[in-house]
Amino acid sequence: MRGCEFLQEDLESCHGFDPRAPHRNGPLRIYGYMNLSSIGQMPELEEVETNESNSLVKTVALISFLSLVMLMSVLGNLLVMVAVCKDRQLRKIKTNYFIVSLAFADLLVSVLVMPFGAIELIHQNWIYGETFCLVRTSLDVLLTTASILHLCCISLDRYYAICCQPLVYRNKMTPLRVTLMIGGCWIIPTVISFLPIMQGWNSIGIDDLIEKRKFSGNSTVCVFMVNKPYALTCSVVAFYVPLILMVLAYQRIYVTARAHARQISMLQRAGGAGNSADHQRNHRMRTETKAAKTLCIIMGCFCLCWAPFFITNVVDPFIDYSVPEQLWAACLWLGYINSMLNPILYAFLNKSFRRAFLIILCCGHKRYRRSSILGPGTTCTATQINGSTHVLKYSVLHNGNHIEQEKLSIQNDTESQESCF
């Protein structure tokens, strides 16, 4: 058969097709004619439609994921701040001031940083101008660094509360020192963010490369690239020094918790508290295991979220900035997810915070209101690691009478209420 689409006379003889009388041409004949003319184009059209469909699915999934991260981060951090403001007992514990400041930093990350990053990631284009690009980048560095430094201060506060004597803790964590530490968590990030970025110190020596990457095809990108000195300085101050301090602090906390749990077991066994040696050993192992799990969760989430970004941040300038953009975006958003996890790790795992959350969410239902204060007859044999205090009580048998003694009390009776899981 010759190509029916090319010759007029052949069209009339091919399947009875008459171009002057389209009403006489059945749909099968028209369809056959069209197939002949576009037989080489159909696979390409199907491939384009498939690619567009896959791209739409990926975009919808990406938008849903980013929206979920931002929403959970906003709600979680707001809930933490409201809980401390409404609960008088929570306001009396010094560690909670660090947690509130941390929640405020993470809330700003989710409100001022994440939305613009999400818009650029979805549209692959920056439409807000070069000046706002610098402001947004400075806010990104400021708020994420402030969040990390708050985590470091929380670990140091717990180290002094758990590993030191009560008098040492009172001397170390005075209201003035707590204020200075929180102020440092905001001032230090400001110094390493707005000052060098707005002055262009981070781009010295790589200006040409930045200009090339700023304009990609027909789109404009908010590029943040750093030279070797800034990459090393910023990463050491914002991540590596806090990481080392956190590891050392939590390692000492875990060792102290194990020692206290073992001491409780020995005292109860020697005092004849009515429990078998196997029961005491199991109780001690459960306490140590719970402490280990809590500390592993805290450090594991922190390292998992931020280590990839800061490793990439240091390595990239030394390999001629060859890290793919997709990897940069994944590492950055993994760090942002830490702002969503912080309320869960530092507040939701705390019994007093959970009670306050339930009161807020359930509109003050009596069922969740704080019960009576831990009285003198309450025995607590658990060592709190995730909370802000550390109280160990045990019962011993002396001259036939059970005498409850308080082994260690941090600060005052209010903070002692937070000792049990």
Question: What can you see in these coordinates?
Answer:
The protein is mostly helical and 421 residues long. It folds into 3 domains: 8-43, no CATH class; 70-336, Rhopdopsin 7-helix transmembrane proteins (Up-down Bundle); 370-416, no CATH class. The protein has 14 helices and 4 strands. It has helices spanning 8-13, 27-37, 42-86, 88-91, 95-123, 130-163, 166-172, 175-199, 207-214, 228-271, 277-315, 325-348, 351-361, 413-416, and strands at 215-216, 219-220, 392-398, 401-408. Helix 3 (42-86) packs across helix 13 (351-361), helix 5 runs antiparallel to helix 6 and helix 11 (277-315) packs antiparallel against helix 12. The radius of gyration is 32 Å and the shape is globular. It starts with 7 loop residues before the first helix and ends in a 5-residue tail after the last helix. Mean pLDDT is 77; it is low at 1-15, 22-37 and 372-421.
Write the layout of secondary structure elements.
Elements: H1 8-13, H2 27-37, H3 42-86, H4 88-91, H5 95-123, H6 130-163, H7 166-172, H8 175-199, H9 207-214, E1 215-216, E2 219-220, H10 228-271, H11 277-315, H12 325-348, H13 351-361, E3 392-398, E4 401-408, H14 413-416
Antiparallel strand pairs: 1-2, 3-4
Helix pairs in contact: 3-5, 3-12, 3-13, 5-6, 5-12, 6-8, 6-10, 10-11, 11-12
